[in-house]
Design goal:
Radius of gyration: 60 Å
Strand order of the largest sheet: 1-2-7-6-3-8
Shape: elongated
Number of helices: 10
Strand content: 15-25%
Order of helices and strands: HHHHHEEEHEEEEEEEEHEEEHEHH
Number of strands: 15
Helix content: 40-55%
């Protein structure tokens, strides 16, 4: 059997190489892993550092934003969100809270350097300018600032401009005053100079006039006996005139006594209720076809055109007042008829022409019943305010609506009486609440008009009440002066003066209201002859 070959011995180099490779690879991987782990720790540390830096930056930014909000609120330009965010987040020790305290301290310190001109004025503090400081817990008050730096600055600037303007005006006024003083001083000096010159001129003139007066006095002394003789003659003439005047006065006193007796008789009739029965003044002479008549009153009786008369029958003095009283049905303001007893004259006349000493021509103003009660020759003439050769003076007060138009006609009556020759001494002016003219000893009658009657729903009830009081006082003043007070309803028919006697109360109220509304018009003019 063949001998087997001995196997060859294998080499260990590949194993060594593999082992070395393995070792190197393991070492490298370990180094790589070590290095890689070391880098991750550095990155984490860096990231942590960056995070802390970012947080610090965010905190500083928040502090800066809060301070910015604080500054905006302090100077007065902050918004409601700024106040709410600051006061809502405020905690003791916050930087912006400390900043507000610094601002207050700085303002107080700055204000301490400002000295006021008036030592009594208290020193200003930060509370006067800002009004906002940390509270007792060192937090921001929730209400925010009550004053603002910008506002206070604007106010201070405004006061400064006012002060500058005032100072400028004061300086201008002072400059003007100095100029005026210098001008007045110059005028004074000029006046002194002129006065000195004038005094010298006057002195010279007085001396000259004194010499002239002395010469004239000497001449007059020489003529004095002749002047005394001439004056004695004039005095004798004056004494003679006084004697004649006394005789005339005595004669007029007799007339006055007669008038007084007539007045007493009339007043006695008034007391007896016979106030409408007067003495006839004259008669109707004839009736002409053109509705005119002639009467026996003329120029000797001082009659004049415009004078009016009431005409009554020839037998009126015998039959009396009741013979002319008739009952009429008269509607009131609501149209309801009522019976009214009224004195009815026969006719009313007005003189249109004075024909001679004892005659005049008249027109028939009205005739109550031209068929059954026709005006005839022989009928009697009456006018209570006028007598032959003499007229009674009258005065008027109250509201006179003569035609029912709701307007006061007192000035028209004054004008008509003046035309008739009946003197109106005075009338009571509603606007001024006083007499226009004057009640005198010659005033015989005070003729009273309507009086306003205030109503509860009247817008002028207060004014009308005051007017009533004023008219009542005027009436009492006249009575105290001895003037007879008589209603226009009694006297106008007896004078022949035609008025509407049944004017409703609503028209009287309307006339009164028109007067009250017209206050502020031109003042009343005194009656003619006053």
């Amino acid at each position: 059997m063949a001998k087997s070959k001995k196997p060859k011995k294998e080499s260990g180099l590949p194993v060594v190489i593999a082992l070395v490779f393995f070792v190197l690879t393991t070492v490298g991987l370990g180094v790589f892993c070590y290095v890689l782990y070391s880098d991750q720790e550095g990155i984490a540390a860096a990231a942590e550092k960056e995070k802390q830096t970012a947080q610090a930056a965010a905190k500083q930014q928040k502090i800066a934003e809060n301070k910015a909000k604080l500054y905006r609120l302090v100077i007065g330009i902050g918004e409601q969100d700024d106040r709410e965010s600051l006061t809502g987040e405020s905690k003791p020790g916050d930087d912006y809270v400390a900043e507000l305290k610094k601002i207050n301290d700085a303002i107080t310190k700055k204000l301490a350097t400002v000295k006021t001109a008036d030592p009594t004025v208290p020193q200003l503090t930060a509370a006067d300018v800002l009004g906002w400081a940390p509270d007792n817990e060192n937090k921001l008050p929730a209400l925010g600032p009550t004053k603002f730096v910008l506002d206070e600055t604007a106010k201070a600037l405004g006061q400064r401009e006012l002060a500058k303007t005032s100072a400028t005006a004061t300086i201008d006024a002072y400059t003007k005053a100095v100029a005026d003083l210098e001008k007045k001083e110059k005028a004074y000096n000029d006046a002194v100079t002129k006065l000195t010159d004038t005094a010298k001129t006057i002195s010279d003139k007085i001396s000259a006039e004194l010499k002239q007066m002395q010469a004239q006095s000497t001449a007059r002394l020489a003529k004095l006996p002749l002047d005394i003789q001439e004056l004695q003659g004039k005095l004798d003439k004056e004494i003679e005139g006084v004697t004649r005047a006394k005789a005339e006065i005595k004669e007029k006193q007799g007339t006055i006594e007669g008038l007084r007796a007539d007045l007493a008789a009339r007043e006695e009739k008034v007391k007896k209720g016979e106030q409408l029965v007067d003495e006839p003044l004259g008669r109707v002479l004839r009736r002409l076809p053109d509705d005119t008549v002639e009467i026996d009153i003329g120029s000797n009786d001082k009659a004049k055109p415009g004078l009016t008369f009431t005409v009554l029958p020839a037998d009126f003095p015998v039959r009396g007042y009741q013979s002319r009283v008739k009952v009429f049905r008269v509607p009131d303001d609501r149209g309801v008829f009522r019976e009214v007893a009224r004195f009815e004259e026969k006719a009313n006349l007005e003189i249109v022409e004075v024909l001679g000493p004892n005659s005049s021509r008249c027109r028939i103003v009205s005739e109550s019943n031209p068929i059954r009660d026709r005006l005839l020759p022989g009928d009697l003439l009456y006018n209570v305010a006028w007598r032959r050769g003499f007229v009674d003076h009258v005065a008027l007060y109250g509201i006179f609506d003569t035609n029912g138009d709701g307007t006061d006609d007192i000035k028209n009556i004054v004008r008509d009486f003046d035309r008739m020759g009946i003197p109106v001494d005075a009338f009571y002016d509603l606007k001024e609440k006083k007499w226009v003219g004057e009640l005198t000893s010659k005033t015989r009658y005070l003729i009273g008009g309507e009086m306003p009657s205030p109503r509860g729903n009247d817008p002028f009830v207060k004014e009308k009440s005051e007017l009533n009081d004023a008219l009542a006082k005027a009436r009492e003043d006249a009575k105290q002066k001895g003037v007879t007070v008589i209603s226009f309803r009694d006297i106008f028919p007896r004078m022949g003066y035609r008025v509407k006697l049944d004017v409703g109360d609503d028209k009287i109220q309307q006339a009164t209201s028109q007067y009250i509304q017209s206050i502020g018009a031109a003042p009343a003019v005194a009656p003619p002859g006053n």
